[in-house]
Structures are given as structure tokens and as C-alpha cells.
Amino acid sequence: MTKLRGAFTALITPMNPDGSVDYDGFRTLVRYQLEQGISGLVPLGTTGETPTLDESEEEKIIEIAMAEAGGKVPVILGAGSNSTRDAVKYVKRAKAAGADYALVVTPYYNKPNDEGIYRHFEACAEVGLPIIVYNIVGRTGKNISTPLLARIAELPNIAGVKEASGDLNQMMDVIATIARKKPGFSVLSGDDALNLPLCAIGGDGVISVVSNLAPAEVTALTKAALDGDFEKARELQYRLLSAFRGSFVDTNPVPIKAAMAMKGLPAGTTRLPLAPLAKDLEDTVRKAFAEAGLL
Q: Which of 160, 97, 98 is nearest to 125 (CA)?
């Protein structure tokens, strides 16, 4: 497995006004990402509103993403479920489609114990496709502790972690106890604002929300940080900070979709149960992205 490093976009799923998937818009968005130099693509993640997509919609999105990527950049395909049986099915689907990695989230809502989480990832890893573990306690209700992640990392085909715990101390422990002993294991930030700090302590980049709108800028920040050019990285960090914060004034991907629409990029509406950005937050989002020089 090639170690993942860089900026990877957690792609939105553009929607038409009636709530149907805008496949042409999705194709345009993927091409925009590639033209702007993004390191890789992450379709069918949280930002893609995957819980509300049916399998036929997902399969069309996969088809477009794989065709447009064309081997130019890695595709990390979302394959999460709170049912282990379904997660395994989705990892198999990702493998059959030719994806480079599968992104597998901690089972949500069930709140499994540590042994259950371990066995969940064990079953997914047995498919034979490299797995990125997705740790996001705010959406799953369960944090993957570093000792548990270390155990999971010993399974075959575990390639890294998307760390969205928001806890730099935990991320540092992951690097110290896992990544430094397993050089091929990637530690990627799940939060744009923590990309630079994570890279500074030895992380490998970000799975980004803001790069939907600003792939070149997020890529430049990540490259500077990974290259050790912290003067440039800090300059970009503070330039983009208002956008990083603005993209989370409401539930993701509501703000980023609104900002993309303001910029004229394909985004459209959200699908229930996510409502579009409230009118009283539109100015907040517009100002945040304008201050970052992105609108």
C-alpha cells in the first residue's frame, strides 16, 4: 500500500431543486477538483449525505468518480454502515469498482463495545481492500481509543485513520504509538482547521470539506505543512481560517453547499433531514468565505 499524504476532498453530492442527484454537477465538481490539483477524492462520505442516498444513486456516483479519476489520483470510497454485513458489502463494492481505499466509519447509533468495533473492522479488512478507519465520535457516539486503534492497525489492509475526534492529544498518541512504528499508516485530519497542527506533529494531511470549494488553496496549505514550510503554511492557515470556521456554523455539508452555490459551483440543495442553510446564516457564511478570499 502506498502511504496516503496530501489533501483529499470529502465530496459533496450536488442536488437538483427537487432533491434528486445532479450527476452532471457531480461530474463537473470532480473535474474541477482534478484541474485544481487535489491529491485524491472521497465520494460517499458524511459530506456526501450518503445516509440519504439509495444504492442506485451511490452506484452512479461511484461510476462517475472512478471514470473521471481515471487512476490520476487515489479514490477513497465511503463504505460505512452501522451494520457490519452492509459495511462488508460496501467494501466489496468499492473493491469491485476499482477504488484504491475504502473509508469505514465506526458503527453509529448501535454504540458497540470495543470488541464489537474491532470485529467490525476485522470483517471489513478481510475483503482485501486497504481500509481507512474513520473515527468521528460526534456522529457515532463512540470514540476509537488509541489502544483499540493500535489493535485494529495490526489487522491486514488497515492503511490509516481519518481522525475527526478533534483532540490533538489523541492524534499525537496515535502518531507516537502507531504511525511511528508502522511507517505506512496514514494519520489524516477530519477537520480542516486541524490540518496544519496535525501535519506539524507528524500527520499526513486532511480529508477536507473546504476543498470542495477551494481545492488549490487547501492543497497548497497541506503541501507547505508536509514540506516543513511552516511560514507559508501559517500564512495560508490564517487566510483560510474564517472559511474553516464558516463551514461548520451549521451541520456539514449545509454551509459548504451554500458557499459553493454563492461561488457558482454545482451544489444545489440538501436532502432531508438536512434543511438548507437558514437565511439568518447566509451572511455569516458569505462573509466567512469572502474574508478568506474564496468568494
A: 160
Among 263, 211, 257, smallest CA distance to 236 is for 211
Residue 138 domain flag:
yes
pLDDT value, residue 147: 98
DSSP state of 17: T
CATH of the domain at 145: 3.20.20.70
Q: What residue ranges of the chain have pLDDT lower than 50?
A: none
In a domain, 289, yes or no: no
Among candidate residues 203, 249, 242, the one with its CA nearest the CA of residue 222: 203
Residue 135 lies in a domain: yes
Contacts of 170 (CB under 8 A, 6+ apart): 143, 146, 163
| 257 among known catalytic residues | no
Separation CA 26–CA 257 (nearest Å): 12
Which residue out of 95, 162, 223, 257 is catalytically annotated? Answer: 162
Instruction: Please report, for residues 42, 43, 125, 281, the alpha-carbon distance to residue 48 in angstroms, rounded to integers and kept in the order given.
Output: 9, 7, 23, 21
Range of the domain at 110: 6-225
**Catalytic hit among 134, 142, 223, 257:** 134
| Residue 134 annotated among the catalytic residues of the structure | yes
Whether residue 140 lies inside any domain: the answer is yes
List the one residue out of 174, 176, 180 whose CA is nearest residue 162. Answer: 174
> Into how many domains does the chain fold?
1
Long-range pairs, 232-237, Cβ under 8 A, ≥24: 233/196, 233/199, 234/196, 237/196
Output the pTM of the full model.
0.96
pLDDT single digits (tens) 252-270: 999 999 999 999 999 999 9
